[in-house]
Amino acid sequence: MKRTVLISAAALLLAASAVYTFGDIARPKPTPAEGKIVFHTRLQIVPDAKAYEARLQISQESLQRIREASATSANQSPTQRLLQSSTRTMMAGVFMFLAVSFAGVWLARSGQKRNHKIAAGLVLGLIWLGATAIIVRANAGPPGSFYWRNLPENLTKGQSTSGGLDIEIVPGDDGIKLLVPLKNPKKPGEE
Amino acid sequence: MPPSYMERAANISIAGWSGTTESARVRVRFFTIILIASACLSAALASWLPLQVSIATVFLFAGPHNWFEARYFLMRLPARFGRSRNFFAVAFAGIFVLTLAYVSLPLLYYTNVWSASNWPTAIAGWNTLLLLWLGALVLLRGQQNSRRDWFWALPATFALCALNWLAPDLFSLGIVYLHPLVALWFLDRHLRRTRPEWLRAYRRCLLLLPLLLAGMILYLARTPSLADDNGLFWRITQHAGAELLPNISSHLLVSTHVFLELLHYGIWIVALPLIGATGAVWSVKAIPLARRRRGWPKLIGAVLVCGLFIVALLWIGFSANYPLTRDLYFAVAIAHVMAEAPFLLRMI
């Protein structure tokens, strides 16, 4: 009995100490807020021997789009809003389950070939949509880094390079940063 | 059959028939021209001055079109429900409860019963009730004829409920844009019954609708959004979905909505009364509840006169405080949107 009491007391002490131990864990660093891509456009990098300062030229239309995008970036997209609402996601799932179940009951109880044809048509339509999506994605073209692969050489030669560009709005006040996708850039002295 | 009879039949002059056919053709042509001209004029006006036309049309036609709809529904209401008793019981109960719930939603919101973040859930709940009510009506209507199997309505209703819970705001906006098109369906059913020779021309004219909409989208897609700097303009752009679809020009949204509304008003106020769907406007004899033995002609007449007073009251309200009257009107007008469902189902 005495032994049991001792073990219980030790266990309780251990459990209580865990609270203090947990309390001493360093506060997690706040995860930096991620940027949000608001639209896609094209960028051309042009070396200019006569220029004294780097210049960023933005067309009036692009500037307008950036303004509109930054104004609406505070609003969440429907997908984001949905992901935050578990009630709505669950309700949508329940109703989708009911829809599929009763569609099966309808097909099973209706002996009409016409209904079976409609169902087969719907399934074929979905397959067609899926196949089209795969084909379109397969023909989506080379990745963005392909267009930027000759940037270092072109800069050396004084030639321009152009490629796709995502305008991303990031938090903070660090000015403007250009990230160029260069796959396996050659290190100096590697040639 | 004696040969003399055959001779008589052969000698019947068809001159009169050809004349009738010719006049019928002229009437169909006239009807087609009016339809096309009205649709094109509506699209042009809605694209040119969307906000101004929206204010003017709601002011002028919102009340009268409700009166014409109410009169039409009274005409379509059978004197005795018979086998349709359950159908009409569910229909009227649904219209009453759903309207009450819809009107109380903003009232509950402004009394802080729930927060703004729960607003989409409340809207999704109301939309679900609406869909379940519509599904029940379709099933009840299907049961009235043993040859119909309308069980498909159940999975379709649940699928729509699922979509509604994914994006309740967009679903409600869909109702705003789809409701005016229901009037086109009413006209189709009526022409099929009363003017079958006009139906083909009408359905061909309907093909013009997607073309006009596509033209409006192409023309207005890149136009700058409308200046919604005052309360009224802001309400109109919000009603058309400017906040939900920020990447689409509000000019396009408002123009499209106004165009569809113009068609809706035109059908209820002009087209259906002209083809005799509502009977003589001043007479209650065409209404079964007033016509039947021991009917209520005086009560029906009083209801219609009261309706005219409400229309006049609405005009006075619009003149005194347009934004407030507009808000009140669109909150209560949900009743007429729902009332269309059972009467349309009765015609299918």
Commentary on this structure:
- The complex is a heterodimer of chains A (191) and B (348).
- Chain A is mainly alpha-helical.
- Chain A has one domain (36-169).
- Helices cover 54% and strands 10% of the residues of chain A.
- Chain A has seven helices and two strands.
- Chain A has helices spanning 2-23, 60-72, 78-84, 86-109, 113-138, 144-148, 151-157; strands at 36-45, 161-169.
- By secondary structure, chain B is mostly helical.
- Chain B has one domain.
- Chain B is built from 15 helices and no strands.
- Chain B has helices at 3-10, 15-48, 50-76, 85-110, 119-143, 153-166, 168-194, 196-206, 208-220, 231-239, 250-274, 288-291, 297-320, 322-332, 334-347.
- In chain B, α2 (15-48) packs parallel to α8 (196-206), α3 packs parallel to α11 and α3 packs across α15 (334-347).
- The chains are: A mainly alpha (191), B mainly alpha (348).
- Chains A and B meet through α3 and α4 of A and α5, α6 and α7 of B.
Strand content of chain B: under 5%
Mean pLDDT over the full residue set of chain B: 85
**Which two protein chains have the largest interface (Cβ within 8 Å of the partner's Cβ), and how many residues from each?**
A-B, 27 and 24 residues
Unreliable segments of 5+ consecutive residues of chain B? none
- Which structural class do the helices and strands of chain A define? mainly alpha
Count of helical stretches of chain B: 15
Count of DSSP H/I helices of chain A: 7
* Number of separate strands of chain B: 0
**Total domains of chain A:** 1
Name the helix and strand elements of chain B from N-terminus to C-terminus, one letter apiece. Answer: HHHHHHHHHHHHHHH
Radius of gyration of chain B: 23 Å
As a percent range, the share of helical residues of chain A equals 40-55%
Strand count, sense and barrel status of the largest sheet of chain A are: 2 strands, antiparallel
